[in-house]
Amino acid sequence: MNDLTAAVLAGGRSSRFGADKALALLDGQTLLNRVCASLQACSKRLLVAPPGRYDAPGWHPVPDTRPGEGPLAGLEAALGAAPPGWVALAGVDLPDLTPAYWQALLEARTPETLSVQALDASGRPQPLAALYHTALLPRVTGLLDSGERRLRLAASRESTVLVSGLPGLRNVNTPADLQQ
């Protein structure tokens, strides 16, 4: 994972959660720290969040270039701040990510790939815990400029490798999700 840039998205409003979910505790650890720990082996680490909101030692703060525009805008900020190559993008609300998850995505890359995404149990791609190549930046910017906000459109199907067989990821959007 040494050649990956890690990017954790923590700039959301947490409106469904009712409080800052990045700071919510699960097994004595904040959601932010849990997600960051899964990517600690990456050589460069970016935290896409409002400046000064979180203290994450070893993580470089990157302001969201389009606040309120969602994860696709967070991906744009991360791709713009990363050196050329691969970015491991993770939402702060995915506390079950592990280094093994990222390693499996990394091993699935091919020379023509621009994104690698796991499939959930229903066969749906998981774009919020995926690999994206920085070559996607112009496409992502174009999508945002046209009013698009869906992260799943960041890479075309033809340039995306889908990986099955990985453990399912829990998405924490509400306090009830955190308790489960």
Q: Count helical runs.
A: 5
Helix residue percentage: 10-25%
Strand order of the largest sheet: 5-4-1-6-8-7-9
Cα Rg: 15 Å
Question: What would you say the CATH architecture is?
Answer: Alpha-Beta Complex
Give the full name of the CATH homologous superfamily: Spore Coat Polysaccharide Biosynthesis Protein SpsA, Chain A
Shape: globular
Structural class by helix and strand composition? alpha/beta
Uncertain residue ranges: none
- What is the class in the CATH system? Alpha Beta
Termini separation (Å)? 30 Å
The largest β sheet comes out as: 7 strands, mixed
DSSP, total strands: 9
Rounded mean pLDDT score: 89
What is the number of independent domains?
Answer: 1
Main location: cytoplasm
Subcellular location: Cytoplasm
Organism: Deinococcus arboris
Keywords: Cytoplasm, GTP-binding, Magnesium, Metal-binding, Molybdenum cofactor biosynthesis, Nucleotide-binding, Transferase
Describe the model.
- The protein is built from five helices and nine strands, in the order E-E-E-H-E-E-H-E-H-E-E-H-E-H.
- The chain has one domain: Spore Coat Polysaccharide Biosynthesis Protein SpsA, Chain A, CATH 3.90.550.10.
- The mean pLDDT is 89.
- It is of the alpha/beta class and 180 residues long.
- Helix content is 23%, strand content 23%.
- The strands form two sheets. Strands 5-4-1-6-8-7-9 form a seven-stranded mixed sheet, with helices on both faces. A two-stranded antiparallel sheet has the order 2-3.
Output the keywords.
single chain, 180 residues, alpha/beta, Spore Coat Polysaccharide Biosynthesis Protein SpsA, Chain A, 7-stranded mixed β-sheet, two-stranded antiparallel ribbon, 5 helices, 9 strands, 23% helix, globular
